[in-house]
Amino acid sequence: MKNVTFRQLRVFTEVARHLSFARAAEALHLTPPAVTMQVKELESQVGMPLFERSGRGVSLSTAGEYYLVYAKRLLATLKDADDAMARFQRLETGLLTIGMVSTAKYFVPRLLARFREEHPGIDVRLQVSQNREQLLELLHVNECDLAVMGRPPKELATRAEPFAAHPLVFIAPPDHPLLRIGHPPLEALAPYPFIVREPGSGTRNAMESFFRDQRFEPRISMEMSSNETIKQAVMAGMGLSFLSLHTVGLELRSGLLHLVDVEGTPVMRSWNVVHLLSKLLSPSAEAFRYFILEEAEAYLVAHDTPLLSAGTDR
Fold first, then answer.
1. Cα–Cα distance, 58 to 33 (Å, whole number)
2. Quick one: CATH architecture of 79-163+271-304?
3. For the whole model, what pTM was predicted?
């Protein structure tokens, strides 16, 4: 395998990511025949097929699954080398990969738009994970430069810096009887079903911690991994929920959902920007880290204050 190139490895990992030659070609700005040729050349060097092809579908072979682990390591090492050289030159160019939990997708893209205005030479890729555990895996295998998440990880050696408050709130449909109670105690929620995030998510962990501290047992009727699906279920009158305030701003402003001003809420947590301690940040990653530490708090305070005030004034 002396003649394997990094270009072939990049193409291979992108096909493995999408399990589609056409989508990999689109992501890499190549033609599908060019992607197919690169994969065939790599398979020729390896001496065995890395993908199993059936009709129009494609999946990794057993050998491909093993090879993918090493290909990702090699590409991550090459990027670390590029980042180290860029630090010597202080170049704010190149690719910046930001991982984030799904709840952060409601504000990080807006911050990124402002960041790109200040740093037009940096290309940004977002990796949205369904929950905290998936994001930790991205960090662990070095597939993102920085991660935006709530609870800092104890499972990995990381540097976690809080940059803004993260309020979590109870929500209900507009006609819910709890809204007629100005400031209900938590016990008033006992008769009503809850639609909640899945175990392992940061939102679920914050909810369970709050309930445990208050010695409250909720009546959980459904678990879902999507904030959007939970909001739709609550709007349909299927139950109450506990979500990040940053996920429900649009619905609160439009009146589709209402805050339930439960005693002891909002439950306050923090947003953190995180990277591996062993990772040497590129100038572009350092620029974004500095930007989010300086700019994100004011942006989120401006978003949160009217929503929380409306909830307590009702």
1. 15
2. 3-Layer(aba) Sandwich (3.40)
3. 0.70
DSSP string, 33-58: HHHHHHHHHHHHHHTS-SEEEETTEE
CB 124 within 8 A of CB 98: yes
Tokens for 288? 């974004």
CATH 3.40.190.10 domain range(s) in the chain: 79-163+271-304, 165-269
Beta strand pairing status for 241-244 and 258-260?
Answer: unpaired
Using the 8-state DSSP alphabet, how is residue 153 labeled? P
Instruction: Please list the residue range(s) of the chain that carry CATH number 1.10.10.10.
Output: 6-70
Nearest to 95 by CA among 105, 82, 107: 82
The predicted model gives 82-111 an average pLDDT of 81
Task: Answer with the residue of higher pLDDT: 113 or 1.
Answer: 113
At residue 212, the pLDDT reads 94
> What pLDDT does 313 receive?
58
Give 51's strand partners: 60
| Angle, helix 32-46 to helix 6-18, in steps of 10 degrees | 110
Mean of pLDDT over the chain: 89
- Distance in angstroms (rounded) separating the CA atoms of residues 115 and 108: 10
Q: What is the pLDDT of residue 153?
A: 83
Map 181-248 to HEC letters: CCCCCHHHHCCCEEEEECCCCHHHHHHHHHHHHHCCCCEEEEEECCHHHHHHHHHCCCCEEEEEHHHC
Coil, strand, or helix at residue 140? helix
Q: What is the average per-residue pLDDT within 176-196?
A: 93
Please report the DSSP string for 263-283 in residue order: TT-SEEEEEEEEEETT----H
pLDDT value for 291: 93
